[in-house]
Amino acid sequence: MPKIAMLSTGEEVLYGDIVDTNAAWLSRVFYEHGFSMYKRSTVGDQRASLLQELVMLSLNLDVVIVNGGLGPTSDDLSAEIAAEAADVPLVLNQGWLDTLKSFYAKRGKVMPESNIKQAMLPQGASVVDNPIGTACGFKMMINDCLFYFTPGVPSEFKKMATEQILPDLANHFQTTQGRVCRRIYTFGLSESGIADTLKHLSLPADYELGYRSYLPFIEVKLFGPADDLDTGTRVLAMIEKLLHSNVVSVDEPMLDRLGHLVELNNRTIAISEHATKGYLASWLQDNEKLAQYCGATWILGAKTASPLDRDSEQLGATLALAGATKGNCNADIAISTGKLENDQFSLAISTPKGEWGQTLKLQRTYSNQNVKTVISTVAADMLRRYLENKPMFPDYGFLTRTQDVFLPLDQITT
Amino acid sequence: MPKIAMLSTGEEVLYGDIVDTNAAWLSRVFYEHGFSMYKRSTVGDQRASLLQELVMLSLNLDVVIVNGGLGPTSDDLSAEIAAEAADVPLVLNQGWLDTLKSFYAKRGKVMPESNIKQAMLPQGASVVDNPIGTACGFKMMINDCLFYFTPGVPSEFKKMATEQILPDLANHFQTTQGRVCRRIYTFGLSESGIADTLKHLSLPADYELGYRSYLPFIEVKLFGPADDLDTGTRVLAMIEKLLHSNVVSVDEPMLDRLGHLVELNNRTIAISEHATKGYLASWLQDNEKLAQYCGATWILGAKTASPLDRDSEQLGATLALAGATKGNCNADIAISTGKLENDQFSLAISTPKGEWGQTLKLQRTYSNQNVKTVISTVAADMLRRYLENKPMFPDYGFLTRTQDVFLPLDQITT
C-alpha cells in the first residue's frame, strides 16, 4: 500500500476562513477505494513554507495530492514551487493554452493575460484534465514521490479526483480489497446513545462501524469488503432494527427517500412556515422529485397577520393553518410550522386521512440556521412517517414532546 | 519570528468526520497576537505516523502545538509517542495525579484506574494546567523544538491556549506587531478580475492583500498592522473605489449591511419566489433585523398557478408579481424571483418610487443550491441598491443581462 498524503494550500484554509471540505471528502473516497490516507497537511501562500513542505512530503510519502494554488493570481504558487522542488523550469503547455482560449471564446470573451499563467507547468509534468474550469491539474514526480496537483474549487477537484486520479492510482498501485461504506441515517439520537445501543453487536471479521455526526443527522457507517454485499446487507438490517424508530433512511439521504415516497404516492404538497422561514420549502425542493410535487408555500413573516397570531394556543392554530393551507392551495397534503416561542414550536400535517399535530421543545441552544434545520427535519419526518404508515410521534433525543394530537377526518371542523 | 506549526491528531479529524475548529481558531488567535502559523498537519491514531510527524516537525519548526490524544483510552497516544520521540521514559506526575483524584472526589466519585494514564508524562515535561478537565497539557523540548501538548476538547484547548500558551510564547519570543484583517465584500467579479484591477495599487509597507472566494461573494482582505488604523482605512477606501460597483459591503457581510439599511429606512418587505424556492426569504431572515421587517413570502411551486404561467413574457410577469405581492401583503417593498428557464431568470422589485426589473442569464452550470444562492444574492443586491440610491443594473461578471426596465410610479398600471 502506498503512503498517501494530502497537502492543502492557501491562507484561507490555513487560517480556517474556509473549512477544508475537499480534504475530508478525499479521505473518505480514497478509503472507500482501498487507499487510506496517511496524513494531511496545510500551508499558506508563502513560498518558503510551500517549498519546504513539498520537499519534506516527497522524501517521506509515495503519493501526494496537492490541492489549491492553481489560479491565475500572484498568490497562486503551486506550479512555480513544484518546478522549484523538482529543479525544472516552468514551460508553456500549448495544449492547455488553446483549451483556455476556447473556454473564453465560447463565452464571447477574450482570455485575460493573467490566465496564461495557468498554462505554465513544470517541465515533464503531464496535464490532468479539468473539463469544467480554467485550472488544469498536472502530475509529476518529485524525488520518487508521485504528485498530483489539483484545483481548489470543490466541483473541479472532485471531478478530477474521481474520474482521473483514482483510476490512475489503481493503475500504479495494487489496491487492497476495495471497501464499501454503507450508511444508515438517523435523526433524534446522540452518538454515545447509538454507540451504547450497538456495543453488543458482534460484527463479522473485516467489518467496522463509524459515525458521522452533523446536525441534524447522525450517519452510522458500516465499512466492509466490497465483494460480499450479502453479509453487509444482513448486518445493515440488524443495525436498522436496533435503531429502528430513529432511522430515517438507508443508503440514501432522507431527502432522496422522501422524493421516492412522494412520487410513489403521487401526492401534491403545500407548506406554510413560520419558525422555519422558508428553509423547509427551499430544502425539500433541492430534491428534483419533491420539487415536482410541491405546490405553493406561504411564509409568515414578522409583519404577517395569520391564524398563529389570533390564537394563543399554538398547537390548535398550527393545525388550523395546515388545514387552511391544504384547502386554499388545493393540495393533497399540507405541512405547517408554527411560531418558535421560548424554545417551543408546533408542527402539523393535514392529509386525506386526518391531521396530526405536535408541540416540541428544544433542549439546547442552536444558531438561527440550525433551529431552522432541526424544525424542518421534524416536519419532513412527519411527512415521511405519514407516507410510510409509521407511528407519527417517535422519541427524539434532543427534543421534548409536550403535546400531540391526531384528528381523524370526521373530527376536523373547517 | 518563530516558525510555528499545529499538529492535530485523531482518525476522526484525519477523515473529516469532525471539522477541526481548534486549528482554525488557533491560527486566527495566534495571528492577532503577532504569531503567524507556518503550517498545520493532521495524522490519525497510528503510532508510526504520529512518531514520524513529531520528529519531522521537531527538526523543521521552532514551536509546535499538538492537539488531541491526551484522553484515558488506549488510542490516546500523544504522551507515549512524545516520550519516544524525545527518547525519555514516561514518569508519573504526582501533582497531576493528586489534582485528578480531587477532581473526582469533588464530584463524589472515585477516580477510575484508567485515568492514571493521564498523569504519566514524558520525563522533563512540565505541566500546563487544565482547570476544567482531566487531561493536563504539558510542554517539553524535542530536538530543540518547543512542543505544547493540548487536549482536544475545544473549551479546554481554548482556555489553555489563551491563558497559558500565548503568554508563555510571548515570554520566549519577541512578537511582531499584532495584525488586523479588514474586508471588502464583492459580488459579481472574478478573482482574476479583481486581481487585475488591483495589481497597480501600491500598498504601504507591511500591508498585504488576500482573497477569499466562496459563492456568491469574493472577499478582498487587507492585512495590516493593528496600531495604524488610519492608514488601513485609507487603503480600504482606495480599494473600494477601484471595485466600486461590485462592492456590497465593507467590514460586515452583505446581510448585516442590508439589515442596517432596512432598519434605517424602516421599510417592510414582502417576497414572492419561484426560482429561489424559499431560499431568499430563509436567508434574509437569518439576519435578526431583516426578520423584523419581513412580511409574508409566497413561494410558487411546480404545482402553483401564478402570473408567471399565464404570461410567456417572464420579465413582465415577474414585475406584475412583485406589484401584486406588494399590494396584497400591504408591504412597502416587494421582491420577486421569476422562473428559471434555459439558465435565464427575471427579478423585480416594486417600491414606493417605482418598479425595476431585469432578466439575467447564468454563464455557468451550478448545483441546485448554488443557483438559489446566486439568484437570491442578485435579488438582495437590488434591495440594497434601491435603499442606497445606487444604480440598479451593474455588471455582474458571471451573469449576462438580456433585459432591464424601470417603471416610474406613474407608468405602473395595476
Strands, helices and their partners?
The structure is a homodimer of 414-residue chains.
Chain A: E1 4-9, H1 11-14, H2 21-32, E2 37-43, H3 47-60, E3 63-67, H4 78-86, E4 90-92, H5 94-106, E5 120-122, E6 126-128, E7 137-142, E8 145-150, H6 154-172, E9 179-187, H7 191-198, E10 208-214, E11 217-225, H8 229-242, E12 247-250, H9 254-265, E13 269-273, H10 279-284, H11 288-293, E14 294-299, H12 307-310, H13 314-328, E15 333-337, E16 344-351, E17 354-362, H14 368-387, E18 399-408
Parallel strand pairs in A: 1-2, 1-3, 3-8, 13-14, 13-15
Antiparallel strand pairs in A: 4-5, 6-7, 7-8, 9-11, 9-12, 10-11, 15-16, 16-17, 17-18
Helix pairs in contact in A: 2-6, 3-4, 9-14
Protein name (chains A, B): CinA-like protein
Family (chains A, B): Belongs to the CinA family.
InterPro entries (chains A, B): CinA, Competence-induced_CinA, MoaB/Mog-like_dom_sf, MoaB/Mog_dom
Give a verbal description of the structure.
2 copies of one chain form a homodimer. The first copy, chain A, has 414 residues and is of the alpha/beta class. Chain A has 3 domains: 4-172, Molybdenum Cofactor Biosythetic Enzyme, Chain A, CATH 3.40.980.10; 179-250, Alpha-Beta Plaits (2-Layer Sandwich); 254-411, Maf protein (Alpha-Beta Complex). Helices cover 38% and strands 27% of the residues of chain A. Chain A is built from 14 helices and 18 strands. In chain A, the strands form 4 sheets. In chain A, strands 2-1-3-8-7-6 form a 6-stranded mixed sheet, with helices on both faces. In chain A, strands 14-13-15-16-17-18 form a 6-stranded mixed sheet, sandwiched between helices. The radius of gyration of chain A is 26 Å and the shape is elongated. In chain A, 46% of the residues are buried. The mean pLDDT of chain A is 89. Strand 14 (294-299) of chain A pairs antiparallel with strand 14 (294-299) of chain B, so a sheet runs across the interface. Chains A, B: Residues 5-172 form the MoaB/Mog domain. Chains A, B: Belongs to the CinA family. Chains A, B: InterPro entries: CinA, Competence-induced_CinA, MoaB/Mog-like_dom_sf, MoaB/Mog_dom. Chains A, B: It comes from Vibrio maritimus.
